[in-house]
Specification:
Length: 371
């Protein structure tokens, strides 16, 4: 068979989240002459990657949200048929059932359900919907992918995972991009009005229930109570920003908490930090913790972050439940903040995007019968 493998990558929104970062890492490294991607994303996406996608030669097709079921199905069915795709690779977690159903109707031979997350009952109806839709993905998918064993077992079942039917597609990065940059540290701290002698507790992620940024306000308050001059730097935006800002005001932490918003220089923001925290209620992997460690940061994560993401001796998982949890995190934070800022750490080779992208490219070609 001649020509590149034609792959439709389907996401929900294309903003600045972890799934988008994973997809972009692979898009940058896979040979476009051998795998031709088309990206399908919700039409109200912010698309900060638009310019780079144009340079990479990857078309972007803006589609209705999957909540508009009829319009969504009609649009994807038409696009999948006209595009003559070999593979549809859906990155919507349990919501992948919607594009996978359209791909099944269009006769696409390879249909990948790729899970990047798990769930938490604190999200109520959203979590109920996840559990409701989860089994239908196995009906319309021909192949099962996950970002970790934890995410794979949650989505497809422990038995299915242990039978080898779930492929773990590594959330790989280019570690050099996140290496410590003293000049960026000085520039960002000046821009954000952080005193040179202050410590910075950092967090990168969407401002959502899942990421549990409110816990970091309690940690910041505990550090202040102990006389530690620490700023909390939040990088990212999201639907809970207004609510979180109000909580910061109510706690009297406006001088210590910095909402940096969605930024194009996210990789550089790690250099401005002294400690990274990820107190998520649930995670499929926790890519930002890997990025932080590549920058040389100690990391404190919740127990819901899979253990395989921890790569160095100054990274750990700690419970977030209970009234004493902020104090436990503060004990560790106090110890880690006394450490000197390091230049970075070598990551396990499995997290190298160069190797992971090569493996993914070969899989696409072999599965599509073009190698």
């Amino acid at each position: 068979m001649e020509g590149p493998v034609r792959v439709a990558l389907v996401l929900n929104r294309m903003d600045s989240g972890g799934i988008e970062a994973v997809v972009m890492n692979y898009c940058r490294r896979i040979d476009s002459g051998r795998v031709a991607f088309t990206l399908f994303v919700c039409r109200d996406s912010l698309l900060p990657q638009r310019e780079e996608l144009e340079k990479l030669g990857i078309p972007v097709c803006l589609i209705p949200p999957y909540t508009h079921v009829g319009e969504y199905q009609r649009t994807l069915l038409r696009e999948f048929r006209e595009g003559r795709f070999d593979i549809v690779h859906a990155h919507l977690n349990t919501m992948s059932v919607f594009p996978l159903f359209a791909a099944w109707r269009a006769g696409i031979p390879v249909r990948i359900c790729h899970n990047h997350t798990t769930a938490h009952w604190g999200e109520g109806k959203k979590t109920f919907l996840k559990y409701l839709l989860r089994p239908f993905n196995k009906i319309f998918a021909t192949h099962y992918f996950a970002c970790s064993r934890f995410a794979g077992e949650w989505m497809f079942g422990k038995s299915t995972f242990e039978k080898g039917r779930v492929r773990v597609m590594t959330n790989a990065i280019d570690a050099e991009v996140f290496s410590y940059d003293p000049a960026a540290r000085e520039r960002l701290r000046r821009e954000l009005k952080i005193p040179a002698d202050a410590k910075v507790v950092g967090h990168v992620g969407r401002l959502t229930y899942q990421k549990n940024q409110e816990f970091l306000f309690r940690l910041t308050a505990e550090l202040e109570r102990r006389g530690i001059r620490a700023f909390l730097l939040l990088v990212g935006g999201g639907e809970m920003e207004g609510e979180l800002r109000e909580k910061v005001r109510a706690m009297g932490l406006e001088a210590q908490v910095i909402f940096a918003g969605v930024r194009e220089d996210v990789a550089k923001t790690y250099s401005a930090m002294d400690l990274f925290c990820l107190p998520s209620y649930y995670e499929g992997f926790g890519l930002v913790a890997l990025e932080a460690q590549a920058s040389g940061l100690p990391c404190i994560c919740s127990m819901q972050v899979p253990g395989e993401v921890l790569e160095n001796e100054t990274s750990c998982r700690v419970p977030i439940e209970g009234d004493t949890a902020p104090a436990r995190w503060a004990d560790l934070a106090e110890r880690y903040l006394k450490l000197s800022r390091t230049a970075g750490t070598g990551l396990d080779p499995q997290y190298s995007i160069a190797a992971a992208a090569g493996e993914m490219q070969r899989w696409y070609e072999q599965t599509a019968g073009k190698k």
